[in-house]
């Protein structure tokens, strides 16, 4: 187990370098970053020269990347468009988005798996058909439409919840944004679970468990769910990073000052350091989420061994 974790951590190193290098080249290497920072305005030559010196833009691109990564590992992600350190923005934005992601993930996992299990056990019946139709509708509607509609009815017209998230992003204000953020993923989890459960109900090992006279609850929880949830866990694990990265639209609708909001501000104000800094941390989140998924495989299926 320990050797497997160490080997997986070592495998993450080239993936991290390759991904961050690609992002760095796309943001800093394509075009003139200084001209992009000023948009339609012409920068003062002295100011432009100072920026080039500060960000080492006169050096070769690989050397710029090396200098940037040395700064990242020492906690220096550069400065944002308003001269505020990107590290400070990361410290304030990521806890907010992490809370939103936790709420969305719980909604997605609990409701999605429950719907999928019940639909799979009642394949072809009214409940199964209703779940399939409902999830198809949810997948077909863009997130920003769902967000604005729920915000208008539940927040503005009926005043059941706050239409925007208050300062500090308390959990009670994040339920509606979390539902919007988790909507599409919840539909995929329900359909994936439903298909996996429906297939496993016809498996030989399950018929054997039933023939042995085991209680139905034990057959479902100890035998069927363990095998059925392996593809679902894979999806849920990779979706943690997607939820954090995909919160841009949801955070804009509900005025949440998290990762999506800061990346949007970085793009609007032409701040490459902000965009690269936030995306670099997102890459780490993706890699750790995938490692967690791999470790959970053997818990769900003892036949899987770490080799």
Protein architecture, described:
The chain has 13 helices and no strands. It is 76% helix and 0% strand. The N and C termini lie close together (8 Å). It is an all-alpha fold and 307 residues long. The chain is globular. The mean pLDDT is 84.
Task: Give the gist of this structure.
The protein is mostly helical and 307 residues long. The chain has helices spanning 2-29, 33-38, 45-54, 61-73, 86-121, 126-140, 143-157, 175-200, 204-211, 216-245, 247-253, 259-268, 272-300.
Write the layout of secondary structure elements.
Layout: H1 2-29, H2 33-38, H3 45-54, H4 61-73, H5 86-121, H6 126-140, H7 143-157, H8 175-200, H9 204-211, H10 216-245, H11 247-253, H12 259-268, H13 272-300
Helix pairs in contact: 1-13, 5-6, 5-8, 5-10, 5-12, 5-13, 6-8, 7-8, 8-10, 9-10, 10-13, 11-12, 12-13
In whole angstroms, how far apart are the ends?
Answer: 8 Å
Inertia-based shape: globular
Low-confidence stretches: none
Taking all residues together, what is the mean pLDDT? Answer: 84
Order of helices and strands: HHHHHHHHHHHHH
Number of helices: 13
Query: Strand percentage, roughly?
Result: under 5%
Helix content: over 70%
Strand tally: 0
Report the sheet with the most strands, covering strand number, pairing sense and barrel closure: none
Radius of gyration, CA atoms, in whole angstroms: 23 Å
Structural class: mainly alpha
Short key terms for the protein model shown above:
76% helix, 13 helices, mainly alpha
């Amino acid at each position: 187990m320990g050797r497997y974790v160490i080997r997986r951590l070592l495998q993450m190193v080239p993936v991290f370098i390759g991904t961050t290098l690609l992002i760095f080249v796309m943001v800093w290497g394509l075009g003139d970053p200084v001209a992009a920072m000023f948009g339609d305005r012409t920068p003062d030559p002295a100011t432009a020269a100072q920026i080039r010196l500060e960000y080492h833009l006169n050096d070769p691109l690989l050397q710029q990347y090396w200098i940037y990564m040395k700064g990242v590992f020492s906690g220096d992600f550069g400065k944002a468009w308003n001269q505020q350190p990107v590290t400070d923005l990361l410290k304030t934005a990521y806890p907010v988005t992490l809370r939103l992601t936790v709420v969305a993930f719980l909604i997605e996992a609990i409701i999605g798996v429950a719907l999928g299990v019940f639909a799979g056990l009642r394949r072809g019946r009214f409940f199964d058909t209703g779940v399939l139709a409902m999830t198809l509708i949810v997948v077909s509607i863009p997130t920003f439409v769902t967000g604005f509609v729920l915000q208008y009815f539940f927040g503005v017209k009926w005043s059941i919840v706050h239409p925007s998230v208050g300062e500090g992003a308390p959990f009670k204000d994040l339920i509606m944004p979390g539902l919007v953020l988790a909507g599409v993923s919840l539909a995929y989890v329900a359909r994936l679970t439903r298909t996996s459960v429906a297939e496993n109900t016809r498996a030989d090992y399950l018929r054997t468990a039933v023939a042995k006279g085991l209680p139905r609850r034990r057959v479902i929880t100890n035998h069927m769910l363990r095998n059925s949830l392996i593809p679902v866990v894979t999806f849920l694990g990779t979706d943690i990073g997607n939820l954090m990265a995909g919160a841009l639209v949801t955070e804009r609708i509900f005025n949440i000052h998290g990762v999506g909001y800061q990346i949007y501000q970085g793009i609007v104000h032409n701040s490459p350091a902000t965009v690269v800094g936030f995306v670099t941390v997102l890459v780490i989140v993706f890699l750790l989420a995938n490692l967690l998924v791999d470790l959970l495989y053997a818990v769900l299926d003892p036949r899987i061994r770490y080799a």
